[in-house]
Amino acid sequence: MGATSAPPRKANPDGRMPLGQHLRELRKRIMLAGAGIVVGAIGGWILYPLLFEQIAAPVNHVGGDLNFTTVGQAFDLQIQVALLLGVFLSCPWWIAQLWMFVTPGLTRSERLYSMAFAGAGALLFVGGGALAWWVLPHAVEMLASFTPEGGANLFTAREYFAFFTKVILFFGVAFLLPEAMVGLNFLGVVRAATFLQAWRWAVVAAFAFTAIANPLPDVWSMIIMGGSLSALFFLAVGVCFLHDRGADRRKATATAETAADE
């Protein structure tokens, strides 16, 4: 009988591929991620009235009005809101595409890990956006309180939505950084001890980011948001330590078995 060819994973255990194939894989993942966001945006279009009502609620609470300054601005805004919601609705999908691009040639068991990573990433992304959503009404109320007596709070819809979107996406992406740490550790790029050595810089970076991205000028909101990012950093380090311990144990066992065979 002729020798059977080895499966692709065995022939290429590191999951490496030529540059051209890597670029094709990148294009494929971008297209799949974009298609998922478009599908999510369709749901966002349907849910637009409810979401717009929630976005406009802080403005209504301070007695302000959202103004549409051009004929087509309301239509443009609906598309943007639908896309924003599409990003959140489809986040498990596009996060999974990102992970599968970073780790090509996955086995079946490794794909299950990818699904777990996608689920955790979706929770982190939505959690960051939810924290920003909680802060935003307080930010609008506080900032609008500086309106002098006799003035009116007239908000341009485009600028208000851009402000709203920027804060939500900033914190959603920031909350994905711990998953990136765990991913790098699982790929064997960075060990937990290396991350832990940089904990001071990580905490400073978390609070510096919060000071820039946080729309509220008060200290307590910065402490809550910066503390949340710092806690996620240490949680990711803990997961990395557990993975490193298991990987070291498996490596030591394999080394001992090899020495015994010799």
UniProtKB/TrEMBL annotation:
<keyword id="KW-1003">Cell membrane</keyword>
<keyword id="KW-0472">Membrane</keyword>
<feature type="transmembrane region" description="Helical">
    <location>
        <begin position="30"/>
        <end position="48"/>
    </location>
</feature>
<feature type="transmembrane region" description="Helical">
    <location>
        <begin position="77"/>
        <end position="100"/>
    </location>
</feature>
<keyword id="KW-0811">Translocation</keyword>
<feature type="transmembrane region" description="Helical">
    <location>
        <begin position="112"/>
        <end position="136"/>
    </location>
</feature>
<keyword id="KW-0653">Protein transport</keyword>
<protein>
    <recommendedName>
        <fullName>Sec-independent protein translocase protein TatC</fullName>
    </recommendedName>
</protein>
<keyword id="KW-1133">Transmembrane helix</keyword>
<feature type="transmembrane region" description="Helical">
    <location>
        <begin position="219"/>
        <end position="242"/>
    </location>
</feature>
<keyword id="KW-0813">Transport</keyword>
<comment type="similarity">
    <text>Belongs to the TatC family.</text>
</comment>
<keyword id="KW-0812">Transmembrane</keyword>
<comment type="function">
    <text>Part of the twin-arginine translocation (Tat) system that transports large folded proteins containing a characteristic twin-arginine motif in their signal peptide across membranes. Together with TatB, TatC is part of a receptor directly interacting with Tat signal peptides.</text>
</comment>
<dbReference type="Pfam" id="PF00902">
    <property type="entry name" value="TatC"/>
</dbReference>
<dbReference type="InterPro" id="IPR002033">
    <property type="entry name" value="TatC"/>
</dbReference>
<feature type="transmembrane region" description="Helical">
    <location>
        <begin position="189"/>
        <end position="213"/>
    </location>
</feature>
<comment type="subunit">
    <text>The Tat system comprises two distinct complexes: a TatABC complex, containing multiple copies of TatA, TatB and TatC subunits, and a separate TatA complex, containing only TatA subunits. Substrates initially bind to the TatABC complex, which probably triggers association of the separate TatA complex to form the active translocon.</text>
</comment>
